[in-house]
Design brief:
Layout lengths: L6 H20 L1 E2 L2 H22 L3 H10 L8 H11 L17 H5 L4 H24 L2 E2 L2 E2 L2 E3 L9 E3 L11 H8 L8 E8 L2 H10 L2 H8 L5 H9 L9 H16 L4 H14 L10 H7 L19 H15 L1 H17 L1 E3 L5 E3 L4 H30 L5 E5 L3 E7 L3 H19 L9 E6 L7 E3 L3
Antiparallel strand pairs: 1-3, 2-3, 4-5, 6-10, 6-11, 7-8, 9-10, 11-12
Helix pairs in contact: 1-16, 2-6, 3-4, 8-9, 8-16, 10-11, 11-12, 12-14, 16-17
The protein binds a DNA duplex through α4, α6, β5, α11 and α12.
DNA sequence: CACTGGAGCCAC
DNA sequence: AAACGTGGCTCCAGTG
């Protein structure tokens, strides 16, 4: 017997298609003048930096080696110059055995040429993928990305032409240049409402681990903060934003999705240097760890047992405690795997069937990632429906996995915020009994452009 | 010239 | 034994 998706699952995607079609048709208002201006400005920056690179000694070596075929954008050529001609040591290989030439590999090379090369490449990416790529899709000042529901293995959504779901934000210089081009329509504001910690909360529901649910429910508890404290051996009060960020993305999520101490330890260790992590009192975390008796990373090789006194050994212990902290999760991981191995398929809490060959890690990720998005999609459907019913002028214009972007008339702002919060945190829980953890949202508003959005309270 | 896969980088 | 997931876009390098 072939398992089939539930009626509810099918309906969610049917209604979802219609709601997303409304978003696509509405479109996002763009500052085309600014896009054009920025394309020129970044173009000049790229030319200037390229000119500087071409006066560098390294470029002479490059020309000697590659002659007329010399191409500053070629990573394989750069690799040949650095690792063959200049004798730098290549520490990482790609899966096809070539020398890695990514930011991670290049950051260790202390050459002005290389650091400038990284900067040029970042700007080229910004210009071609985002500025030029987005301008190509703008029609009468509006951008109409395609929001898909038929392409992912997890029953998440995706987006293309352009992909509105990966606009830079982490690097403020790059993010600012592109996000300032997204603007509200005249007399309106852009409103972005996103779920707080949605994936962790949905994970707690899926595994029904009481301790995990407690973390997801009590706003005074913070798993990322607590794990930062453990990983970097500091008191909770000494954990600031940055170490918390790296604990979240370098420990908690990787561990939840099947990574382990070898990789995790390396990641957390490297973050100390690259992000210049400190305690709240400003003590460098290497120094801090040394005081606590840890002065080296360790081999981080799966064949060797971690050596006592190393960071790797410490993280191995933290991992053990993490598993003990969430005993139900630890137990159910195995049961979930066994069930799949027996049947060859599984069903998400939202009624979708995942059938096929899955790795262990995919098995941990899919049942969380899909349903988390389905909370957003269900909310989006209700939102679009209610806006129409109430004859509001608000236009929902975008969706980014756990957030909704809308173009709202100033006079509808308060109503809109109330409505969206009610749907996303209350109504969705009435609809799905499996959501046993509370949900929360955060809202940001801007009257100028998407980069300038500021947090607002929802009363 | 069209097409493909790899590598890399952007987001959640 | 093995080792975090999902996407889209661009460029290069190689193929026919």
């Amino acid at each position: 017997m072939v398992a089939t998706p539930s009626k509810e699952a099918l309906k969610l995607f049917q209604d979802g298609c219609l709601a997303l079609a409304v978003l696509e048709s509405n479109g996002i208002c763009m500052d085309v003048e600014r896009i054009n201006r920025t394309i020129d400005e970044v173009g000049v920056q790229i030319e200037d930096l390229t000119g500087e690179l071409k006066t560098d000694e390294v470029w002479k070596t490059w020309k000697r080696r590659w002659g007329d075929k010399s191409n500053l954008s070629s990573r394989s050529q750069l690799a040949s110059i650095l690792f063959k001609e200049m004798g730098y040591e290549s520490k990482h290989a790609t899966k096809t055995g070539r020398d890695k030439v990514d930011v991670d590999a290049l950051e260790g090379i202390d050459l002005p040429f290389v650091q400038k090369w990284i900067r040029v490449e970042k700007h080229k990416k910004l210009r071609s993928t985002y500025l030029v790529g987005i301008r190509r899709e703008v029609c009468d000042g509006l951008l109409h990305p395609s929001f898909n529901l038929h392409l992912t293995r997890t029953y998440r959504g995706s987006c293309d032409s352009p992909n509105f779901q990966n606009i830079p934000i982490r690097d403020p210089e790059i993010g600012g240049m592109i996000r300032r081009c997204f603007i509200p329509r005249p007399g309106r504001v852009l409103v972005e409402v996103d779920y707080s910690a949605l994936e962790f909360r949905i994970a707690s529901c899926f595994w029904s681990d009481p301790a995990m649910i407690r973390y997801a429910s009590d706003s005074t508890l913070d798993i990322h903060r607590d794990m930062a404290a453990e990983c970097y051996k500091m008191p909770v009060e000494q954990v600031t934003k940055k170490p918390r960020f790296y604990a979240k993305n370098g420990f908690v999520f990787p561990e939840l999705y099947g990574s382990y101490y070898c990789n995790v330890a390396r990641e957390l260790w490297n973050a100390i240097e690259s992000a210049e992590l400190t305690t709240a009192d400003g003590v460098d975390l290497f120094k801090h760890l040394r005081r606590a008796g840890i002065s080296e990373l360790g081999a981080c090789d799966s064949h060797d047992k971690p050596v006592k006194g190393t960071f790797e050994h410490h993280i191995c212990q933290v991992e053990k405690r993490f598993n003990e902290k969430f005993p139900t999760w630890s137990r159910k991981k195995d049961e979930w795997l066994k069930l799949y191995q027996k049947r060859g398929w599984f069903r998400t809490m939202t009624g979708f069937v995942c059938a096929g060959v899955f790795s262990r890690n995919e098995l941990y990720n899919y049942p969380v990632q899909g349903p988390a998005f389905h909370c957003l999609l269900w909310s989006l459907i209700q939102l679009v429906k209610q806006i129409k019913k109430r004859k509001m002028q608000t236009l929902v214009v975008g969706q980014i996995h756990d957030s909704i972007l809308a173009d709202v008339p100033e006079e509808e702002l308060d109503d809109y915020l109330q409505m969206v919060k009610q749907i996303m945190t209350v109504d969705v829980r009435d609809h799905w009994a499996w959501i046993v953890a509370p949900l929360g949202v955060e809202a940001e508003v801007t009257r100028t452009n998407w980069f300038e959005k500021k947090a607002v309270e929802i009363k």
